[in-house]
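Slack export, channel: ligand-projects

TW: morning all. Re-posting the request from yesterday since it got buried. We need the structure predicted with the small molecule present, not the apo form. The ligand is pyridoxal-5'-phosphate; the SMILES is in the block with the sequence. No rush, but it would help planning for next week.
GE: picking it up
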Amino acid sequence: MTVSTGGEQGFLYDQVSRHVLGLIEQGTLRPGERAPSLRGLSRQLKVSISTVKQAYGSLEERGVLKVRPQSGFYVSGLPQQAPPVPRRHAVCCKPRKVRFGELFEEIFLLANNPEIVPLGAAVPSPDLLPGKGLLRATRRAAGLHAEAAIDYCFPPGLPALRRQIARRYAEFGVSVSPDEVVITSGATEGLTLALQAVARRGDVIAVESPTYFSVLRLIERMGLLAVEIDTDPETGMDPEALEMALETMDIRAVLTVPNFNNPLGALMPVAHKQRIAQLVAEHGVTLIEDDIYGDLYFEGERPPPIRRFDEAGRVITCSSFSKTLAPGYRVGWVLAGSRVDDVLEWKQATTSATASLPQLGVSEYLRSGEYDRHLRRLRQAFRDQVEHMRLLVARHFPPGTRITQPAGGFVLWVEMPRGNDCLEVFHNALEAGISITPGILFSATRRYRNCIRISCGHASSDEIEAAVEKLGQILSG
Ligand SMILES: Cc1ncc(COP(=O)(O)O)c(C=O)c1O
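GE: finished. pasting the full token output, ligand included:
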């Protein structure tokens, strides 16, 4: 770049800002990377350090750069002209049966192909997970507990692991007794047991809209009805809409993902969590929360689960290590609260026991102290990947696209310009060797035909960049 050295300071700093923005837009500088040093850029562009400082200050204000103490400026995000976040839609508040069956099968069979660029499934890339460390821990555990490793580990599960999970909650202010921690085969079994413990065929379950499709599938298979509650793309399930539904319908349970939900990535503010805890207590219903993404926050502190505000013992919390450690180990848990006996009975009746060795391995890995170090790296990787994907979508998708800006997790929800149909986009993308998840899966009412979910579970690469460019061509403007 040539910077005119004769201009005024304002003019100069603007040119420096545009130079840095250009580097980000071309992908030369990526989110998470360190921006050139003040001195280096001043020398390179032949401007004063204070001009570069001023340019960096303005980029910081626009959310493009961020200072890390004692380390300099880092690229943090997109410039202001990033696509806006999706609009919140009022949903029709009527309980209904969920009917998806074959649609799920088709989509998952097709998308489960390793040859395909993986923007579909919300699965962390194995490269980001501590495979070797976990394997070492599992080997150690198998050596130390050779008999336990091959024996049944009956519910509620491995005592040491249940204590470790309870301790982790204590670290962010949630008091949990190990006695109410039931180890499950992933969060999916936790959600199943929670629903089995509280609901019977024909009961109505309030869910977010859009919501995680496996929840809808469970509701379908269990013969339950779903009522979708208005959900804000940034703040999650709306307490007022929930209140209205609780007042006008016979709802058995509310199911929500309060921290970085799937697919919106919404983070429910503490005041809403408190209000929802209060509402379920007032109406005598159970709240089932899925906190599987809670540890994957990008900034600040670990957001609390709703359980923290549950004074009436109405909340069941489900989670797992699937998004942070090893989805294949299938180690999850339920904080069953006052429902612990029901949950245990269902667990005993349906799966008898959770596999022993994965529990021993995860417990040993937690004991080693490596988990928190790994989580710090993982959060940073997801933050960078999500920001980079937003940048790519901003660059390659047609005008009229809207995209979420989550503060945690690793999925993005994209509202496509009018005229695009998610199933058509899904099929055309697959033909081009790319998987995405069609929006239609995230609602019992088959709304969100104009939306897709993009997973950022894999590190940015040329292949992923080319795939997003191709998706942009598939979408019509
Ligand atoms: C919100 C949510 N809950 C649960 C799961 C599944 O968790 P697990 O693999 O532990 O059963 C997922 C995975 O995509 C999810 O997004």
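GE: first-pass observations. The pocket of pyridoxal-5'-phosphate is lined by residues 122, 186-188, 212, 257, 262, 290, 292, 320, 322, 327, 332 (CB under 6 Å). The longest strand covers residues 225-232.
TW: perfect, thank you
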